[in-house]
Specification:
- The chain is an alpha+beta fold.
- The chain has a domain at about 25-110 and about 345-410: 2-Layer Sandwich (Uridine Diphospho-n-acetylenolpyruvylglucosamine Reductase, domain 2), CATH 3.30.43.20.
- The chain has 17 helices and 13 strands.
- Strands 1-2-8-5-3 form a five-stranded mixed beta sheet. Strands 4, 9, 12 and 13 form a four-stranded antiparallel beta sheet that branches.
- The longest helix is centred in the middle third of the chain and has 32 residues, at about 265-295.
- The chain binds protoporphyrin IX containing FE and 2-acetamido-2-deoxy-beta-D-glucopyranose.
- The site of protoporphyrin IX containing FE has 24 residues, from helix 6, helix 12 and helix 17.
C-alpha cells in the first residue's frame, strides 16, 4: 500500500514536471520522434538513397503540414519545408538561430572555417570571401580563368568521359587558382588526390567514429593542411620582400586578425573549407545539368542555338567576355532549373538560440535543432507548377511556373541571410561557361544509365559516363 501511494505520487510528480516543461516550451510542431536514439534517421537515409527521395518529406507534410518535428542524427529536430519559416530561420542568423553542424563535419573542416564561425568574425570573413567572388572580380579576372581551365581540360578529353570526374578537376583547379594563384601542375594534382579522401569523409555521416573512411579522411586532412601551410609560409616570405599577388591568400595575409594578423592555422582552415564548399557542389551541378539536358533534347537544342550564336559573334577561339555571359538568357533558365531540381545542398542546419514562435503558434524550444529544407520548398507543387519535372522554360518571363506569391522566398538554392553562399554567382558563371564550351565543341550520348543519389550530398553513382564526338563548326566531324 505504501509502495502504491509512493508510485502514485511519483506519477503525479512526473505529470506535473512534464506539464510545466510543456508550458514553458509552448507547443512543438506536430510529428513523430520515431525510434529512441536513431529516431527517423534511417527512414531519411533510405529515402535519400533512391531516385525519388521525396516520400520522406511528402508523407510528413501530408500528415503534419510543412513544419514538423522529427528526430535526426541523434537529436529531435524541427524540419521546415515552409518558405516563410525558412526565411525566418535564414534571416535571423545570429539573433534567433545559429549555424550548427555535426562534430564530424567540423573536425574535417577545421575550427576556423567560415561555415562554423560566428558573430562579428563571421561577418568580417563572409564579406572578405564575397569580395573575392563578387561580380567585378568575376568579370575582370575569374571569368577568364574559368574559360581557360574549362578549355584546357576539354582539350584532353578522349571519346569516353567520366563527366563527374572531369568537372571535379575543373572546379578544383579553379578554386586553387582563385585561392593562391597556382596553375594546374603536379603539385595541384597530388593535392587533389589527398583532398578527395577528405571529401569522402563527409559521406560517412552519421556514425563516423566507426568508419575507416572517416579515419582516412582525417589523416588526409592533415596532409592537405600541411601542404597548404607550406604555401602560406612561402607566401609570408614573398610578402616581406614586396611580392604581392592578387588572390584570396594575399587578402587573408593582409587582414588584421584578432591581434595583428591571422595565424597560419586559421588561414589554412579557412582555405581548406573554401575548397570543400566550392568543389563538390559546383562539379555536381555541372554533371547534373548535362544529365537533365541529355534527357530533354528540346531544351538542349535551344541551349545549343543560344551558344552557337554567341560563338558566331565572338569568333572561333576567342575568350568569353562578360557581355557574352550576360547574353546567355536561356542558359540562366537552365542553370536555375538545374539548381532547383538537383538541390545540391538540400537544406541547412541551425540551432534555436532562444524559444522562437513560428506560424500557427508553434514554438521551437531554445537549443532545438532546426533543418530548413530548401529542397522541400523547391519540390512542392504548391510553389512550383509540376514541381518534380525539369522544365527550364518555367523561368522565362515573370513568375512563369511559380505560384502567385513572390519568387524571392521560394527559390533559395544558395541559402539566404548572413550565411548566403558567397560563391553563388561564381558557381553560375562556372556552369554557364562549362555549358558553352561543351555544347559548341561536342555532341554526346550517355553511355550508361546513372542513378542520382541524394544522401549525404547529391552525387551520381557511376560518375556519369558519356561518349563524346568533337564538332567542327557546330556539325559532327
Ligand atoms: C552549385 C554550387 C553551390 C551551391 C548549391 C552552394 C550552396 C550553399 C548553401 C546553401 C550555403 C549556405 C549554408 C548555410 O547557410 O549553412 C552555402 C554556403 C557557403 N558556400 Fe556555397 N554553394 C555552391 C558553390 C560555392 C562556391 C563555388 C563557393 C566558393 C567560392 C562556395 C562557398 C561557400 C562558403 C564559404 C559558404 C559558407 C558561408 C557562411 O557560412 O557564411 N559555395 N553554399
Ligand atoms: C534565377 O534565379 C535567381 C534567384 O536566385 C533570379 O534572381 C533570376 O532572375 C533567375 N533567372 C531567371 C532567368 O529566371
Amino acid at each position: 500500500m505504501l509502495l502504491f501511494s509512493l508510485l502514485l505520487s511519483l506519477f503525479f510528480l512526473l505529470l506535473l514536471l512534464l506539464r510545466s516543461t510543456a508550458r514553458r516550451q509552448g507547443r512543438l510542431p506536430p510529428g513523430s520522434l520515431g525510434l529512441p536514439f536513431i529516431g527517423e534517421t534511417l527512414q531519411l537515409i533510405s529515402a535519400y538513397k533512391t531516385e525519388n527521395p521525396e516520400p520522406f518529406i511528402d508523407d510528413r507534410v501530408a500528415r503534419y503540414g510543412p513544419v514538423f518535428t522529427t528526430h535526426l542524427f541523434g537529436e529531435p529536430t524541427v524540419f521546415s519545408a515552409d518558405p516563410e519559416t525558412n526565411r525566418l530561420i535564414l534571416q535571423n542568423e545570429g539573433r534567433l538561430f545559429e549555424s550548427s553542424y555535426p562534430g564530424s563535419i567540423s573536425n574535417l573542416l577545421g575550427r576556423h572555417s567560415l561555415l562554423l564561425m560566428r558573430g562579428s568574425l563571421h561577418k568580417r570573413m563572409h564579406s572578405l570571401t564575397m569580395s573575392f567572388a563578387n561580380n567585378a572580380i568575376i568579370r575582370d579576372h575569374l571569368l577568364l580563368d574559368v574559360d581557360r581551365l574549362v578549355r584546357l581540360n576539354m582539350e584532353s578529353w578522349s571519346d569516353r568521359v567520366l563527366l563527374m570526374e572531369e568537372s571535379k578537376k575543373i572546379t578544383f583547379q579553379l578554386t586553387v587558382k582563385q585561392l593562391m594563384s597556382f596553375d594546374p601542375c603536379e603539385w595541384t594534382e597530388n593535392l587533389m588526390k589527398e583532398y578527395m579522401l577528405v571529401i569522402e569523409g563527409f559521406f560517412t555521416i552519421p556514425l563516423p567514429i566507426f568508419s575507416t573512411t572517416y579515419r582516412r579522411a582525417i589523416k588526409a586532412r592533415g596532409k592537405v593542411a600541411e601542404a597548404l601551410s607550406l604555401v602560406v609560409r612561402d607566401r609570408r616570405r614573398e610578402v616581406e620582400v614586396g611580392e604581392i599577388k592578387n588572390d584570396m591568400l594575399a587578402a587573408l595575409l593582409d587582414e588584421e586578425g584578432g591581434g595583428g594578423g591571422f595565424s597560419d592555422e586559421e588561414i589554412v582552415d579557412f582555405m581548406l573549407a573554401l575548397l570543400v564548399a566550392g568543389y563538390e557542389t559546383t562539379s555536381t551541378i555541372m554533371t547534373l545539368a548535362v544529365k537533365f539536358l541529355t534527357e530533354h533534347p528540346l531544351a538542349l537544342a535551344q541551349l545549343k542555338d543560344e551558344h552557337e550564336e554567341i560563338k558566331a559573334k565572338r569568333g572561333e577561339n576567342e575568350a568569353l567576355q562578360w557581355e557574352d555571359y550576360k547574353a546567355m538568357c536561356f542558359t540562366q533558365c537552365v542553370v536555375n532549373e538545374t539548381l532547383r531540381v538537383a538541390n545540391i545542398i538540400s537544406g541547412v542546419f541551425r540551432r534555436a538560440m532562444t524559444d522562437v514562435t513560428i506560424k500557427e503558434g508553434y514554438t521551437i524550444p531554445k537549443g532545438y535543432k532546426v533543418f530548413a529544407s530548401l529542397r522541400g520548398v523547391h519540390m512542392d507543387h504548391h510553389h512550383f507548377k509540376d514541381a518534380r519535372a525539369f522544365n527550364p522554360w518555367r523561368w522565362q518571363g515573370q513568375q512563369n511556373g511559380l505560384g502567385a506569391t513572390s519568387a524571392t522566398n521560394m527559390f533559395n538554392p544558395f541559402g539566404g541571410g548572413p550565411r548566403r553562399c558567397p560563391g553563388a554567382e561564381l558557381a553560375r558563371v562556372e556552369l554557364s561557361v562549362f555549358l558553352h564550351r561543351l555544347v559548341t565543341q561536342f555532341s554526346w550520348e550517355a553511355t550508361e544509365q546513372d542513378k542520382v543519389v541524394f544522401f549525404p550530398t547529391t552525387r551520381t553513382q557511376k560518375r556519369y559516363p558519356i561518349t563524346i564526338r568533337r564538332l567542327k563548326r557546330g556539325v559532327e566531324e
